Amino acid sequence: MSELIPVRTLDPSNNDLASVDTPVVDATRHNEAVRLVKGHYQRLRRWLSGPLILLFLIAPWLEINGAPLLWMNLEDHTLHLFGLQFWPDDLLMLTWLALASAFALFIAANLAGRIWCGFSCPQTVWSMMFMWVEDRFLGSRNKRLKEAKLPWRQRNLKGLFMTHLLWWSMAFVTGFTFVAYFETGQGLAQNIISGDISIAVTFWLIFFSALTYINAGWLREQVCMHMCPYARFQSVMVDRDTLKVGYDIDRGEPRSSKVKNKPSSKTSGDCIDCRLCVQVCPVGIDIRQGLQYSCIDCGACIDACDNIMDSINKPKGLIRFMPDSGQSHQVRSRLRLVGYSLALFVSIILFALQVLSKESFETSVNRERGQLYFYSGLNIANGYTFSLQNKLNQDVQANIEVLQPSDLTIKMNQPISVSAGEKRDFPFTLLCQQPCALDRKTNIDLKININGETFSLDNHFFNPDH
Ligand code: SF4
Ligand code: SF4
């Protein structure tokens, strides 16, 4: 082993040691009253999460190729995704898409730690929206903390009512949208308005609404710390050059009380120990104690500290995104990043190739079972079944011709017509007039014409008289 794990000696007399992020075995809330902060990273989160929230909300309503942007149609066993329709036998194609998404997430984690968690994860984004509501109706952090000590009748009951009313409203919209991915937005809205709503749909509406209310309103960081599986394994994707939110210990220590314009010296660092970085932290940790597994890299502490540095005329960046390997980013050989990028590239290419070669129809011709041939008047007849699965969002018509041999004629009892998304079987007969000159077993070539597209299928014809 050539590399040593860097260690730091902590002073047990330091009260802040209590907030060091040791593995938590209980579910104690670390920061029940998060202070909201303004700044660069809060704006960035809004810019990143805003379009994603909008897409989440409109996806079951906005139609493309006759179906919503996202619709998991359980009845037909199909998935509609941005105008493409996937069937159960397209599972491999979707696997490439899922792999591409996973590798994109791994790349983000390798470049900048848990930025997905901090900036785009629905759990964080919804929690932040719920925090904004409580800040708006119940007041600032200090006010909320003070009020929490008062008896119930002296609290801001109107604010509490408004907060929970809005939380439930947002939770219902979220629950509705989740269920609409299975029912379509329009279909679900019509069912609710007309009262024609099944017990199962009612259950899932209540379930998803309650889950959102509890997760974003009450559990918040507990989900990230104790329930999220991604949080458990994302640390294996980082390396020494991964950017993580960190505290510049050399610049900040030793901490000193707030003195405006005080120049940094060997006896006093830039940190004025205002603890704003702790108060704004949604997971309630003190980033000054070093890298901690529960940090979701949301950047709130960076914004809080930058605001403080501005106010005391010190350069920003006492807390910032930095690599574990040093104060400044070093270019190293990042084999893991190269590997993830290659895997992402391959997954996208394979997905694209499969989508481009995706067929709109599944066709097959099978012989009727249990009867090689039969006689139909003066003809020798063989029975077949033509199966057509229509993977389009529109009805289609088809016809069958015999290309080879020319001695055969085709007899169908009904026109071939298949509705959008359906699969149907059509029995037909091939006839050879006696005396039939064909061999005992003759290869046949069939041409299928479906909505202008032609397919070739083959099979056999049995002639018992040869
Ligand atoms: S330590 Fe900073 S970046 Fe990490 S979760 Fe807390 S506020 Fe967000
Ligand atoms: S916000 Fe900055 S100055 Fe204040 S305690 Fe945190 S690191 Fe120190």
Automatic annotation (TrEMBL):
Which keywords appear in this protein's UniProt record, sorted alphabetically? 4Fe-4S, Electron transport, Iron, Iron-sulfur, Membrane, Metal-binding, Transmembrane, Transmembrane helix, Transport
One function term, GO molecular function aspect: metal ion binding
Q: Which GO terms describe its cellular component?
A: plasma membrane
Tell me which positions the record assigns to the signal sequence.
none
Which SUPFAM superfamilies does the entry mention?
4Fe-4S ferredoxins (SSF54862)
Q: Where is the 4Fe-4S ferredoxin-type domain?
A: 261-290
What InterPro entries does UniProt report for this protein, alphabetically? Answer: 4Fe4S_Fe-S-bd, 4Fe4S_Fe_S_CS, Cyt_c_oxidase_cbb3_FixG, Electron_Trans/Redox, FixG_C, Ig-like_fold
Q: What Pfam families does this protein map onto?
A: Fer4_18, Fer4_5, FixG_C
TM annotation in the entry? 52-71, 91-112, 159-182, 197-219, 337-356
Q: What's the name of the protein?
A: Polyferredoxin
